[in-house]
Amino acid sequence: MGTLLRGPEQLALSVEITVYKGxxxxxxxxxxxxxxxxxxxxxxxxxxxxxxxxxSIPYGLNRVLWGEGSWVEAVTSNAYESIGVQIFGDYxxxxxxxxFDGEEVWRGNTAEIWNEFGRFGGYIxxxxxSPGEHxxxxxxxxxxxxxxxxxxxxxxxxxGLKIKD
Length: 165
Prior knowledge:
single chain, mainly beta
């Protein structure tokens, strides 16, 4: 289905990965449901649980991942065709990896996905999976000493967002 590039190595994936430049809440076709990465003060939508490790830091509706292995994840059994995550911050955001049901499906420098007006990051969508319980986790790689700011997780009945009309 998809492919993960890791240096000269290519790994076959069991799902499809689409990386979108920009902030998904501003897209022409947006995720149907959004769960904030910091769900401590605002509960997640029904059927979605957002969890995080104790080293991640709440920052408004966001979660900031500091250091290697710091993570935030969304879990759902709801019938969605795609699940994604919005990484959004300033130029200092760093390297992360994305795991879907425990399988690494993406890794990279989150600041290199996109930038506009001093904001950096992007939306990474996972699709092509069977119905059932799924976990989407963002994990800081930490080796560059830059935080990773996770804004929200998105859930869509139909895979494929659209950036502009």
